[in-house]
Amino acid sequence: MWYLPELFEIDPTYATYTVALVVSGLLSIVASAVTGALSAGRRLLGVLLGVAMLGYGAYLYLFLPAEYWIAWYVFALPVLVVVNAVRAVLAARRGEGATEDASLEPAASAGGATFTDPVTRAADPTDGITPPTR
Q1: Does residue 119 contact residue 102 with C-beta atoms inside 8 Å?
Q2: I want to staple 50 with a disulfide (CB 3.0 to 4.6 A). Which of 16, 29, 82, 89 is the partner?
Q3: Which three-class secondary structure state does DSSP give residue 105?
Q4: Cα 45 versus chain centre, distance
Q5: CA 48 to centroid of chain Cα atoms
Q6: Are 20 and 59 in contact (CB under 8 A)?
Q7: DSSP codes of every residue in 33-62
Q8: Domain span at 30
Q9: pLDDT (tens digit, 9 = 90+) per residue, 108-132?
């Protein structure tokens, strides 16, 4: 096993790629696992791809293979995972704010604090219409 400073002296590209894989894998795992607003499938996919990146980075660091594969485009994954997680959290916050607005606040009334009805009913198009009589 090499120490990281020595690895940067021997092959800077290899060392940069290895460190970037490990950091990106960890970022993807954390962003996917922590964000509860994502669907279970997206969270699982983000975690699995993060584990794959972390595992490949660890393999490259620990075993220094004679041949290895460098694909720089894999670093788009953590960016996409983080962007998707932030969008899901923001959408969930907007959705929560809309559902919690009036249901828990006390209504102003002379008889004391009352709460508004949290269940809203769609307007019935036939309200106020009486059927014709013969």
Answers
A1: no
A2: 29
A3: coil
A4: 11
A5: 14
A6: no
A7: HH-TTS-HHHHHHHHHHHHHHHHHHHHHHH
A8: 4-95
A9: 444 444 445 555 555 666 666 776 7
Quote the DSSP letter at residue 100. H
**DSSP label at 124?**
P
pTM summary value: 0.60
Within-domain flag for 72: yes
Residue 82 lies in a domain: yes
The helix/strand/coil state of 106 is strand
CA distance 113 to 17: 62
- Whether 57 maps to a domain, the answer reads yes
Tens of pLDDT along 57-106? Answer: 999 988 888 888 888 888 888 888 888 888 888 888 887 544 433 443 44
Q: Is residue 79 part of a domain?
A: yes
Residues forming beta bridges with residue 66, ordered by sequence position:
none
Rounded CA separation 40/110 (Å): 47
